[in-house]
Amino acid sequence: MSLSIESMTDVLVVGSGIAGCATALAAARNGAQVTLVTKASEPEEATSWWAQGGIAVTRTDPAAFKRDIRTASDDTAEPEAVDVLVENARSAIEDVLFETLDVPFDANGSGYEYGREAAHSKRRILHVDASTGRHILGPFLSHLAGLDSVTIHQDTAALDLLTHEGRVHGAYLESDGDVEPIFAGTTVLATGGIGALYPESTNPDGATGDGIAMAALAGADVRDMEYVQFHPTVCTEGEPFLVSEAVRGEGALLCNADGERFMPDYHADAELAPRDVVARAVAREREQTGGVRLDVSPLAFSEAFPDLVALCDSHGVDWQAGIPVAPAEHFLCGGIAVDSDGRTSLDRLFAVGECSRTGVHGANRLASTSLLEGLVWGLRAGRAATGFDPQRIEVPDLLDRDPALPERFGAEKSVRLHRVMSEHVGLERTHAGLKRATAALRRLKGEVDAYTRTRTSRDLYELRGKSVTALLIARAAADNPTSTGCHYLAEEPTANVD
């Protein structure tokens, strides 16, 4: 191959966050030759790197953990999926994070220092200050790079799946303008989230929904796409950045521009209410009073969160006066439908992490369960994906015969997509707005499709991924008449509003 990648592999993993890394580790342990490709050129370009709060653990009360997950989901989380997550949490964390990677989780004199976050009834969050993701992902990638049976290719994008009669045989890969197929016994999508579909997001720029779009175009089932979670506390001063939910867990308070604490008026759990409730409350108070600040004076902020203090200082934020915050897109609770081992509806295609829909989050995700979900399902998928021989099939070349796109083509289409998603498919929605969004996104997808038929480039296929995934979200939202969790219909405020 011109990409300097072997043309065949036992297991192809697309994505280098915690879910992709866990998949690669488990498959390698099971005797497979693994090729892990990621369009990221640095670890910090993966969403897992950006995870601040930490990873939830079972501790001594798994029943309470399960209840918290279901309650946060507005009682829509699937019990079987919740059982898989919670009952495999301890063994997965001990195996990978403790014994294999030796992650330096914060501790005190009596053991690990467990944090608490919104909608958790107990302290159960393992963390490293407020930058847990980077302390997991960096060592994880380094560990995989040292395994003979795992090959990692950075700055390499998957453009499309190779399919034949309902079976997936690998993917087209692109690197430095070269495109070639790689054939795999099994293919595992671990491509992360969809933040690039919205103008404000906590995700890296590369979160363009690629895996979901590729799977859907190949015929895989997708579910719960309407459940897009917004994080309530993203700093709005300078370049936006996430302020971990753990800060509220330690006692920080939300105050409006009049200096009034408002969350007790919206929910009995106040600042520790489920994310969808807090995010809508913050948005409403910003609209009504002109702003919202996170008051960190009730806690020893500089001692408890030195990483966040440094982040505030580097952005010129006077945290002692309160951190100005607003909601921003954070996590997709739905995605490619999978079973308890990450299998999709297509033969030999698996999906793990945020691009997958396990059912564990339902309509709203409980804080600090995303890293855990990626770890648990990654390990299970990695084991289940082994034992299949790659098969070379006849595949057409992707066409690239027409002139390059106009310089502003991608930027202009992205601006249109952002406008539609923020106006009509955001934190609050209406039936009429969703109808307009679906029509607008259908037109946008058609325009992009017209170019992908005769042109091949990473930027163009990312734009296709965004347009396809955005349309899936809008259609799912338009088809769901029930206001639940992250899918809040302003015209019928009957479910989990205040």
Automatic annotation (TrEMBL):
Its EC number(s): 1.4.3.16
Pfam families, per the entry: FAD_binding_2
Gene Ontology annotations of biological process type: NAD+ biosynthetic process
Residues of the FAD-dependent oxidoreductase 2 FAD-binding domain: 10-371
Molecular functions per Gene Ontology: L-aspartate oxidase activity
Keyword list, A-Z: FAD, Flavoprotein, Oxidoreductase, Pyridine nucleotide biosynthesis
Cofactor: FAD
Pathways involved: Cofactor biosynthesis; NAD(+) biosynthesis; iminoaspartate from L-aspartate (oxidase route): step 1/1
Coiled coil: none
InterPro entries, sorted: FAD-dep_OxRdtase_2_FAD-bd, FAD/NAD-bd_sf, Fum_R/Succ_DH_flav-like_C_sf, NadB, Succ_DH/fumarate_Rdtase_cat_sf
Keyword RNA-binding: no
Family: Belongs to the FAD-dependent oxidoreductase 2 family. NadB subfamily.
Protein name, as recorded: L-aspartate oxidase
Organism: Halocatena salina
Upper lineage: Archaea, Methanobacteriati, Methanobacteriota, Stenosarchaea group, Halobacteria
